[in-house]
Structure formats: C-alpha cells, structure tokens
Amino acid sequence: MSVLGYGQKCKYDFNIADPFSGQVNKGIKSKLAKSWKTTISSVDDTAYYLTLHLNFPGQVFYLIEEGDSCIMVLDNGKQIILHALEDVKPKRNIQGYANVASINTFYTATYKLEDEQLAMLSSELLSALRIYFQETPITVMDFPKRNRKKILKAAGCIAKKS
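and the corresponding structure tokens:
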C-alpha cells in the first residue's frame, strides 16, 4: 500500500490490545465539519474502518441501514464508496436550562475501508462527502482545509504497518 506521509509522526487517540484475543485496535479521531467527526481505525493492521460521528440540531428521524452508502470525493475527483456495516438508529439528547430546552440527534455509523480506499484517502484531500440515510442523501462540501489535512494524515498513519 502506497501512502503519503510515511515520515510523519503518528499520535493515536487509542491503541489498545484486547487481553483476550490479542487484537490491537488503534485509531485517530478528526473533526470533519462543525459538529461532525471521523475516526479512522484498524484492527491488527489488517482491517480498516471509517466511523462517522454525526450531530444534527433538532429531531432527525432518518435511519442509516446496513449497506447504505457513504461517498467521499477527493480533490483529484476520484470517489470512494463505502457501505454501512450495520443499521444505525438516531439517538437524541435533550439539554435544558430553566424553561429552554434544545434537542440534538446523534448518529455513529461505521464503514469498512479496503486497503486501496485507505491508500486513496491517505494520498489526496477529501473535498466532499455524501451520506445516505436510506434513500435520503445529505451532502457536505465545506470542510476547513486543516480538517481535511488531519483526515489525510490520520489515514496515512492508520495505513502504516506497525
């Protein structure tokens, strides 16, 4: 696997060995947009995952079903198409103070990354993301460049074999 950044230092947000199976799980979290985050992770440097942590204001009733798509477009125009590993239902949080309450809806969806997809993500900046909630697409294209660079670096670190 050819990746950008083999000379870079990698700081993992988690690097944990399971005491029973011996599997090593490691990952790097990155901010994507205002209230959206990603985690790029690996299990034993052989299986790779992208987890999206999504936060919407208000009540959102969409479901992400197993197999729903996440399409990433890179600066070079190439697309990476991923599929949700399992069904994801919305979780809601109600926060209040005095007589004012606000509701947020959260999703945590995980997608399998193949070696080639991880290499692509580690060599070119992300420019757009479209997530399908059943048949409903939500597209985001306004990522700060520093966040796009952090995702590229995270993918490069995860792609490195320890």
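(Above: one complete record from the training split.) The CA atoms of residues 38 and 52 lie 5 Å apart.
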